[in-house]
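During the reporting period the student researcher (J.K.) took over the structure-prediction task from the postdoctoral fellow and processed the backlog of single-chain submissions. One of the processed entries is reproduced below for the supervisory committee.
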Amino acid sequence: MGIDEAGRGPVLGPMVYGCLYCACSYQKTLSSLNFADSKTLKEEKREELFENLKVDNCIGWEVDVIDPRELSAKMLRKLKVNLNEISHNSAIGLVRRVINMGVLLTEVYVDTVGDAEKYQIKLSEIFPGVKFVVSKKADSLYPVVSGASIVAKVTRDRALRDWVPDETADNMHTNFGSGYPGDPETKAWLEHHKHSLFGFPTLVRFSWGTCTPYFKDSVEVLWEADKEDEEGSRNGNGKRQLKLSNVGFTGYKRKTEDIESSGKGRCKFFQARRLELVSSFL
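J.K. obtained the following structure tokens:
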């Protein structure tokens, strides 16, 4: 079995982990199928190879598509989950899924994320009956990983190509280029689709540092939160507030009279209705 990912670096779209597996006796045949690191192949060739492996009864494959909202939520929550850990969990999930399907896995080749030796030890401890080989450039060294690379890349490309916005804003389009932060077309798309209050469409990984400069003119929002749950500044009522800037968003300062919730008291909406926070319903 080989495991590889596609879309780790882009600011747009999902990150996809793919695996490809076959009988050990099929390895020589696998080497003749012209699989290669998906990044070195043109899109048409990747699509062709993917369609070929789909109809090959000697090959099995699975994918884990990690939504950009999930990536952002995990990376920005109070107990953060970094991208390496998300990647490791996805690979572990694929191995476990294939084993639960009744496949007898004996060897698994993985393109490394982080320290290869530590990653290999981690996988071996979770699946002691499986031999793991974790290395850099595994997608170029092992045909089974090259096949997994194609599975992941084509799945991600199709997800982007077929993307339908959840939002209903006007003038939205899908000319977002490669999705990588340095792509001028991607930058132009981000600039065009930013919103001063709601940020970006759900296609965007808003936890990426790439997004931060686009919010220099955003609306500053103050969230009231229980003191046990969030870190924030204490106001006159003993409540604590959390700014969006604490989770990656920045905003411009406005005069007290210009904002509904100034930080010096409760929001007028709650004051007018005499609503208070309740910690217990008993």
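The committee noted the following: Confidence is low (pLDDT under 50) at residues 251-264.
J.K. will present the remaining backlog at the next meeting.
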